[in-house]
Write a structure and sequence with these properties.
By secondary structure, this protein is an alpha+beta fold. The protein contains ten helices and nine strands. GO terms for molecular function: zinc ion binding.
Length: 294
């Protein structure tokens, strides 16, 4: 009688049904999140077209099993032709301790990154900002992501590796923070590291690019005294709202204060607030007109 140990079996028929993996995207493109779609895009850009079509067909029509994702390694069993399981291994380069310290400081210094980390939103903006700091989390050969298959096909990527990438992409749909985990740390570990950072800590300081510069106008306009704010933060006259003007040019009051020392994503906070002024003026005018009609 043949022993059916699920960790040693070699055919997909011997895998218990609850251990089999089926690709969810049977018709639509694989990848629901930006991270998984970008992972697929990079993989497809370096693979041969005929192998891509065969690999996708394999992933959709056949099955996979024993998906293992851990720091530095991803492993999955793929069954394409016949019933034999081909073991596909991915080796992932991990970040060094000093790199993690630097990464945590970058996230802690940016309110958008910190908020996204805590809320669990791994967006394109989040990844792009980290890429600007030379941290690349989307797996590719250029970022230390190498595949090995037991099929013996000397061409890389073989159809089993391609099929495996589609299954990995759907795993990223369920938990995109696996991109960090395979590099060495889970999202929870990063959150705890960010929370520990306080002013005056002995962690090395980093240089986070800021666009802080003087925002005061050359016209000589200055911030008014608190007892005389007319013409700066208030409106004059009984008609529509009159924006603050300097030499006939409309001026957004907050711009006189200069750039904020904080950023949200890649934008200075003062620039974001300035973008709200047209809506504020429009709403204020609508309120004034409503009061006049009454």
């Amino acid at each position: 009688m043949r022993r059916k140990n699920r960790w040693w079996i070699k055919t997909i028929n011997d895998v218990p049904p609850e251990r089999k993996l089926k690709l969810k995207a049977q018709i639509e493109p694989v990848g629901k999140t930006w991270c998984s779609r970008e992972f697929i895009r990079i993989m497809e850009s370096s693979a041969e077209n005929k192998r891509l079509s065969k690999g996708l067909l394999c992933a959709r029509k056949r099955e996979a099993c024993r998906l293992i994702i851990e720091p530095g390694r991803i492993k999955i069993g793929i069954s394409c032709s016949g019933y034999t399981i081909r073991d596909v291994d991915f080796v992932v380069s991990q970040l060094k301790d000093a790199e993690w310290v630097n990464l945590v400081r970058i996230i802690a210094a940016d309110t958008a990154l910190s908020g996204a980390l805590i809320s669990g939103e791994l967006s394109e903006t989040f990844v792009r900002i980290l890429q600007d700091h030379k941290f690349y989390f989307i797996p590719s050969i250029s970022t230390g992501f190498y595949a090995y298959c037991s099929c013996g096909d000397v061409n890389n990527s073989c159809i089993h590796v391609i099929a495996a990438c589609y299954f990995i992409a759907e795993a990223l749909d369920e938990n995109p923070w696996l991109l960090f985990y395979i590099r060495g740390k889970s999202r929870e570990e990063i959150i705890q590291a960010v929370k520990k950072i306080r002013p005056g800590s002995d962690l090395p300081k980093i240089s986070v690019p800021q666009t802080v510069q003087s925002g005061f106008l050359s016209s000589g306009i200055t911030i008014p005294k608190t007892e005389n704010p007319v013409g700066f933060f208030t409106f004059e006259g009984d008609g529509p709202v009159e924006p603050v003007q300097c030499n006939g040019q409309e001026v957004i009051p907050i711009s006189l204060l200069g750039k904020a020392p904080y950023s949200y994503g890649q934008k200075n906070l003062a620039d974001i607030i300035s973008g709200l002024y047209p809506r504020i003026v429009s709403y204020a005018n609508s309120v004034c007109n409503s009061d006049e009609r009454k």
